UniProtKB/TrEMBL annotation, chain A:
It is a multi-pass membrane protein. Signal peptide: none annotated. Keywords: Amino-acid transport, Cell membrane, Membrane, Transmembrane, Transmembrane helix, Transport. This is Amino acid/amide ABC transporter membrane protein 1 (HAAT family). It comes from Actinoplanes xinjiangensis. GO terms for biological process: amino acid transport.
Automatic annotation (TrEMBL), chain B:
One of its GO terms (molecular function) is branched-chain amino acid transmembrane transporter activity. The chain crosses the membrane at residues 38-55, 111-133, 140-159, 185-205, 235-256, 317-340. PANTHER family: HIGH-AFFINITY BRANCHED-CHAIN AMINO ACID TRANSPORT SYSTEM PERMEASE, HIGH-AFFINITY BRANCHED-CHAIN AMINO ACID TRANSPORT SYSTEM PERMEASE PROTEIN LIVM. CDD domains: TM_PBP1_LivM_like. The lineage of its organism: Bacteria, Bacillati, Actinomycetota, Actinomycetes, Micromonosporales. This is Branched-chain amino acid transport system permease protein. It is found in: Cell membrane. InterPro entries: ABC_transp_permease, LivM-like. It comes from Actinoplanes xinjiangensis. Residues 1-28 are annotated as: Disordered.
Length: 292, 352
């Protein structure tokens, strides 16, 4: 029983990270109808920035802030320099270009930092509090809950309560009409990429210290898990992404805890297959057809 | 030479048959006399055998590697270029073929049987993935196959009594006949397999099946109206291309005399996509260029790394070069290298 409680909390904490990452995927999907396969590599790059800043200054928080800024900058650069020029007549094109970016990012990171796992500390203890003999949450889990919760609330407010959020939704939903009404559609697209990349970087900096450390490919499995989360939730739905992330996180936590850690990627694949074949629209999507 | 005219012709058709971006060019290519694939393949075989006698051993080994890559890039070209299904899981399918070869070979020590088993097993695995893939499009398919690629190390460590987790397996091979150097023998075997695979693909793609593939890629509704069974066509395309990947993986296991999950990372699957995109989606000759690049670029970047004495550069420079080339080709010439001659000639014609 106590193991079950512990695994559940651990899964929820992990799931929130997947949720944040899935949210980043959903943001770009909604804005540009591209699944950003380079998200993982971009997030890892931001984490490396954090690693350098933290090592230079000795402050985790400076590194944390630097990672978010790096994420924003990467989002802008990737959208302005590359993604803007992709021919969208086939959905394959965006995917292939993103894969090219993955290779570039991983190559550059490998040259600058080397292909080994570099240690990255958490700012808070990862020892779980014990309540009545049952291990529950660690301080770090609480930090993850708080941060991702804050981001989700901030994004919700941004999209539902602010003029910029309205413009971003309009630009994604009806680009031509929005342009006629004076919305800078290109600018909104760039903003969407920047926001998404920053959220992805946040997820990266939250998840990397809980695993082996920073490595150019550290986010590959996280990406697949988050993609699964986004698909479970329906790629269109931010709420779905959060719920999907929690589902994937808890599932992986149970699989790793009760069977073995090495089985986790197979569980993700199985979940993806079941969801995509059983309910391809995801649990929260309103659209029926899944053609694009 | 026959090879050249055929290459020119392939390039011509690639202009209109290229996958992701329908070109604004003429809808139907001018009908040219088409060289029969058997002739092209025979010429290729003669060329390869001649090359193996001229090249030094290490080059012959590299030539063998090109042949092994050619199998998988040709298969992926048919799947992605002609049928429009993007697979990021072909590295995993290669691993399937490689592990099957290793396991069968170590038990029965019969190379033809091992290859047959590799083909059989990848057919089954390809059919399973293909059945799922046929219901998915675009990024969904890419994501699912990406998960397949990620799963390889997980499978090998979970069933480590069979697959011996990260260490992998070594492959027992009988030495080739004494009068031939081993590298030459390897080149013959790999290219023999590659040419047979490509010949079969070329014959398959010429006929009705090839037309079905393209029809499904270009417009599913129209294809359905024309009486094409879409799901069956897509599953078949996946199986065909999975078998090619399996043969290729088995060849790599044979070449390296060992298999391990480290030989089939996600990057391999991305490299394969890069190879077929650069070669020009949908052209088997493009697949050859892609296979060649897969061997030449890493070798070049390794020699650059050795010259500068930087170990980090050695492995990673190739990644950057591949990535940059992939992005630039996708943005500038989505038809790939093979489409450049036809694009140029069209430009010249238009300007005249």
């Amino acid at each position: 029983m106590s193991e079950f409680v512990y695994l559940t909390f651990d899964g929820l904490s992990r799931g929130l990270v997947y949720a944040a990452f899935a949210l980043a995927l959903v943001l770009i999907w909604r804005a540009a109808r591209i699944v950003n396969f380079a998200q993982g590599a971009m997030a890892v790059s931001a984490v490396y920035v954090a690693y350098s800043v933290t090592n230079a200054t000795g402050s985790y928080w400076l590194g944390f802030g630097a990672a978010l800024l790096a994420g924003l900058a990467l989002g802008v650069i990737v959208e302005r320099v590359v993604m803007r020029f992709v021919d969208h007549s086939s959905p394959l094109n965006g995917v292939v270009v993103a894969l090219g970016l993955v290779l570039i990012f991983q190559g550059v990171l490998g040259i600058v930092y080397g292909n080994e796992f570099l240690p990255f500390e958490t700012p808070f203890s990862r020892d779980a509090f014990v309540v009545g003999g049952v291990a529950m949450l660690s301080r770090y889990d609480l930090f993850v809950f708080g941060t991702v919760g804050a981001v989700v609330i901030a994004l919700t407010l941004l999209f539902t309560r602010t003029a910029v959020g309205l413009r971003m939704r309009a630009a994604a939903f009806a680009p031509d009409v929005s342009r006629l009404l004076g919305v800078s559609v290109g600018g909104m697209l760039t903003l969407g990429w920047a926001l998404a990349a920053a959220v992805g970087s946040l997820a990266g900096i939250l998840v990397v210290p809980t695993e082996l450390g920073v490595h150019p490919t550290a986010m590959d499995v996280v990406f697949v898990s988050a993609f699964a989360a986004a698909v479970v939730g329906g790629l269109d739905s931010p709420i779905g992404a959060v719920v999907g992330g929690l589902i994937v996180g808890v599932l992986l936590s149970y699989v790793s805890g009760y069977i073995d850690v090495t089985v986790a990627p197979m569980a993700v694949l199985a979940l993806l297959v079941v969801v995509l074949l059983g309910r391809p629209g995801g649990l929260f999507s309103s659209s029926k057809a899944r053609v694009a | 030479m026959t090879g050249r005219t055929a290459a020119k012709h392939e390039a011509e058709t690639a202009g209109t048959a290229q996958a992701p971006v329908p070109d604004a060019g003429p809808v139907l290519p001018k009908r040219r006399r088409r060289v029969h694939p058997v002739i092209v393949i025979a010429a290729g075989a003669v060329l390869v055998v001649a090359l193996t006698y001229m090249l030094p051993p290490f080059r012959n080994y590299q030539l063998a590697t090109v042949g092994a890559y050619f199998c998988v890039t040709a298969g992926l070209t048919v799947l992605t270029g002609l049928n429009g299904q993007l697979s990021l899981g072909h590295g995993a399918l290669m691993a399937t073929g490689a592990y099957t070869l290793a396991l069968t070979q170590n038990r029965w020590e019969n190379l033809p049987l091992s290859f047959a088993m590799a083909v059989l097993v990848t057919t089954v695995v390809g059919a399973v993935i293909g059945l799922a893939a046929a219901r998915l499009r675009g990024p969904y398919l890419a994501g699912l196959t990406l998960a397949v690629a990620i799963v390889v190390p997980s499978v090998t460590s979970t069933f480590d009594e069979t697959f011996n987790s990260d260490q992998g397996l070594s492959v027992f091979l009988n030495p080739p006949p004494e009068q031939y150097p081993i590298e030459q023998w390897q080149a013959w075997l790999c290219w023999g397999a590659a040419l047979v695979v490509v010949l079969l693909l070329a014959l398959l793609v010429r006929g009705r099946f090839g037309r079905d593939l393209r029809a499904v890629r270009d417009d599913e509704t129209a294809a359905k109206l024309a009486g094409i069974n879409i799901a069956r066509t897509q599953v078949l395309a996946f199986v065909v291309s999975a078998v090619c990947a399996g043969v290729s993986g088995a060849l790599f296991a044979y070449l390296a005399q060992s298999v391990s999950p480290g030989a089939f990372p996600l990057t391999l699957s991305l490299f394969l996509v890069m190879a077929i995109v650069i070669g020009g989606l949908g052209s088997l000759f493009g697949a050859l260029w892609g296979a060649l690049l897969l061997v030449v670029l890493p070798a070049l970047s390794q020699s650059v790394g050795e010259q500068t004495g930087s170990q980090r550069l050695e492995g990673n420079l190739a990644l950057i070069v591949f990535g940059v080339v992939l992005v630039v080709v996708m943005l500038a010439a989505p038809g790939g290298l093979a489409s450049i001659p036809s694009r140029m000639s069209r430009l010249i014609r238009r300007n005249r």
